Amino acid sequence: MADEALFQFLHNEVIQYIYKSTEHGEMENGRCITKLENMGFRVGLGLIERFTKDTARFKDELDVMKFICKDFWTSVFKKQIDNLRTNHQGIYVLQDNKFRLLTQLSAGKQYLEHAPKYLAFTCGLVRGGLSNLGVKSIVTAEVSVMPACKFQVMIQKM
Amino acid sequence: MADEALFQFLHNEVIQYIYKSTEHGEMENGRCITKLENMGFRVGLGLIERFTKDTARFKDELDVMKFICKDFWTSVFKKQIDNLRTNHQGIYVLQDNKFRLLTQLSAGKQYLEHAPKYLAFTCGLVRGGLSNLGVKSIVTAEVSVMPACKFQVMIQKM
């Protein structure tokens, strides 16, 4: 629980800092999201390198996705993804019914508009992780009812 | 090991971001250090709240310092402080012979000048933790040989 707390608190600080440091500038919400996403991307790149040091080679794309949903998610968020769906054409939807970085926000609709900034880092994290496993993707997130959320991964074919 | 990695990578990103976002501004090294320290302070405040939820009341100042050196340090850095010294007049020196956030830098003297930015967050973390336990302090850090480092805590009497 302690480790989680450390990550959560630091994550919150990062969000606040990025938003505050751009308050008086020309940058709007979108650029903050991009910065958080890029930060997540680089962290994801690094993490996957450590996590897969002693892992067997992955069979295919689906095998990679399963690794992200189980091992990767567990080490970062202390639980697995609850549901993984795919259309078998390069789109994957990862559903987390109790996403760790949203549980600190009220479960009502009151803060729904703030959800994107709590998801951007994680979108980047997934994109970075996949990227280091040779899978190029675009990752977006959506929330309908807090703290559940869905990450959509669109694989970019080379 | 995974949790540590997550914290370390995010910590690095934060340092880089803060330094980069102030590159083209009027802010110099000192202000970046202050920002990192303040960030650490707020994280320390929050962490101590979680960690001490089920802890017995502390006897005295020394008891608080021991808690920081053992429990707090272990949850954040996965090891205890190696040596705690005090002059019994409000100055404590916490020595970590292998400080986690410095082990990623080369052990030589080459990067010694970069050490302060890797220590600022932790100085704040300690100050914030102590503050939430009712001990007001000033915390500074010094490195002579990497990755060993000393944190000096000066208690501010009210």
UniProtKB/TrEMBL annotation, chains A, B:
GO biological process: endoplasmic reticulum to Golgi vesicle-mediated transport; nervous system development
CDD domains: TRAPPC6A_Trs33
SUPFAM superfamilies per the UniProt record, alphabetical: Ligand-binding domain in the NO signalling and Golgi transport (SSF111126)
Transmembrane segments: none
Lineage: superkingdom: Eukaryota
GO cellular component: cis-Golgi network; endoplasmic reticulum; trans-Golgi network; TRAPP complex
Chief place where the protein resides: endoplasmic reticulum
Pfam families xref list: TRAPP
Keywords of the record: Endoplasmic reticulum, Golgi apparatus, Neurogenesis
Subcellular location: Endoplasmic reticulum; Golgi apparatus, cis-Golgi network
Protein family per UniProt: Belongs to the TRAPP small subunits family. BET3 subfamily.
Function: Component of a transport protein particle (TRAPP) complex that may function in specific stages of inter-organelle traffic. Specifically involved in the early development of neural circuitry, likely by controlling the frequency and amplitude of intracellular calcium transients implicated in the regulation of neuron differentiation and survival.
Protein name, UniProt field: Trafficking protein particle complex subunit 6B
Lineage: Eukaryota, Metazoa, Chordata, Craniata, Vertebrata
